[in-house]
Amino acid sequence: MAFPHLQQPSSVLADSINKPFAQRCQDLVKVIEDFPAKELHSIFPLLVESIFGSLDGVLVGWNLRCLQGRVNPVEYGIVMEFLDPGGPMMKLVYKLQAEDYKFDFPVSYLPGPVKASIQERILPDSPLYHNKVQFPPSGGLGLHLALNPFEYYIFFFALSLITQKPLPVSLRVRTSDCAYFTLVDRYLSWFLPTEGSVPPPLSSSPGGTSPSPAPRTPAMPFASYGLHHTSLLKRHISHQTSVNADPTSQEIWRSETLLQVFVEMWLHHYSLEMYQKMQSPHAKESFTPSEEHVLVVRLLLKHLHAFANSLKPEQVSPSAHSHATSPLEEFKRVAVPRFVQQKLYLFLQHCFGHWPLDASFRAVLEMWLSYLQPWRYASEKQAQSNDSQSRCVLEKWAPFVQENLLVYTKLFVGFLNRALRTDLVSPKNALMVFRVAKVFAQPNLAEMIQKGEQLFLEPELVIPHRQHRLFTTPTVTGSFLSPWPPAVTDASFKVKSHVYSLEGQDCKYTPMFGPEVRTLVLRLAQLITQAKQTARSISDQCVETPSGQSFLSWLGFSPTDPNSSYSGNDLDEMGQDSIRKTDEYLEKALEYLRQIFRLSEAQLAQLTLALGTTQDENGKKQLPDCIVGEDGLILTALGRYQFADQMVALCSRDDFLGSFCRYHLIEPTLANRHLLSPVGRRQAASQARGPRLSLRFLGSYRTLLSFFLAFVMGSLLSIRPLPCALLLVLGYLLYAMAMTLLTERGKLHQP
């Protein structure tokens, strides 16, 4: 009885706390192998918490998010072996699973929308929670879920990504190298296999039989997994579905559970109702995902695409569903649209609207782009060549594009609005614009998106008595309406169902290829052109720095302008290579945008020409604020006064130059005007008297006639046009100087 493996499991667990990590895991392996489930079930919650940390984030557990193989290879290897889907910890899960033990999980630690729904006694739409909600007894500690061992383990594993405190900035951890990220990948590959079937539960004793897995709860026929799903009918928790031990479902109940837990814990933090109220200033979202969280979600999406694309060709179509189809193959068909689509859209919408305007948005961007391109993870990808035809998006992906239309169009508009507010001179920001433009410029993709918009915007052509049934949500055991006879109507119905399920039937859809978005794209093209020229001017300034500048800097007199717009830009730190990268990214992005939106070469050339004629006081090319119309650049009200600060500074000088500028740039005071109309006096009084440059007099007939007569007189006196023009300018300068002196002298004698 003195040997560690013969002690009670709780004693071994307590004694192992102070032992080295390797010895601790060896003791746990012996306990799992030697003791029956009856004695192991009491330590299971403590063991899970000691590994993944407490739900309140106080205990960090084994800190899997910071454990890296390159830094701690020994501990990393032990952890990966112990927590592997075929390792000792999962053997313990299956040993307890065979005895039908249940473990309490507090509802208070579930994602916000789920917790709120359960607390309001409304059953959440996900079948993951059905038949699990337990009411507290009198004097109890609150609502909780009754989970089987596998569910309990996966709940803790998934939530440890969120409940634990964010990694400190000083700790440089590469997420893809950490133990947690690797375990997510292994669990996905094991329970959502792209080849073969899910391995059966492992026996916990040598030579023993595998424990019989519990059925998924509640048993729900796959026919009820509609292609689109908004929310199930609100049902009271007291009406939870009873467990139906469907033999065919036992094969994949772990696969379903794993996917649903990952989606619920990682994505279901924003409800549809809250999203639709997001424009309200009083709407607040308490959950903010981290960059690490986003990277893990991207891993999930990439694997789900590979999982769904491993479906056999003859079983891709919903009409191919038959009793001969295996549950795993059927699950592949419905996994993304049934479980992921809506929650991912809301998650992405929140990230696009609330993520800081910095380079960390790249993680969100790549997650979005990964979901947009399921063809990248198709099984036939390996056989494709590198020619242009293979890079074309095949027509087989049109249903995916149409049934995810908002993820393409509305989020693209969201990205445009972000890009218009970022510094595109930064190589990291330029790269993000390039990445998005490159993805959307893939051959045939823009046409697919445009076709989806046409299907959504086409008028309703349905039988009158069926109109009231359009776009209704399925019940728990029901499905969407039967297929419509015309193929186009069916495709239109699917697109409309997708949009209305996410945005509501009263949504105002802004077409991606409509005039409003085209204006945004032209504005972005203008900023790209401006950023290219700014980067080049910075490059020229670095190359052509005068030798005296370094001498002044050596003496301690830095000539750098503290008000420079680009003093903190990462171009200054990374040098000429970054400038070349920025120019390359922006040049290609501009070309991709031209292809996607069919912009004319004349429009882009006009942008470049207009920008080339404008320089600011530092010699850097800068365009006043304007908008790009179909006929060219249009100066805005802001652009008309954007250089007003320089004119104010000149007119404020006390010397002759200030007087000269005041004479030309400031209008005469109202006292010197003869305004007979009361209306005219009120309008004039309301106008600002700031300095302004007006060239309207050049368009008057009187001025044009005076110039004409002057040149005629010059020709009669044998004076050529150019000398004549110089004489006119010189004469005007003398006249203006005289008037400036008289005006200033007159002001001195005014009372």
TrEMBL record:
Membrane-traversing stretches: 699-719, 725-743
Task: Describe its membrane topology.
Answer: Single-pass membrane protein
Gene Ontology MF terms in the entry: sphingomyelin phosphodiesterase D activity
User: Which Pfam families is this protein grouped with?
Assistant: mit_SMPDase
Per the record, the major location class is membrane
Alphabetical GO CC annotations of the entry are:
membrane
- Localization, UniProt: Membrane
Arranged from A to Z, the UniProt key words for this protein are: Membrane, Transmembrane, Transmembrane helix
Give the coiled coil ranges. Answer: none
A single GO BP term for this record reads: sphingomyelin catabolic process
Q: What is this protein called?
A: Sphingomyelin phosphodiesterase 4
Gene designation: SMPD4
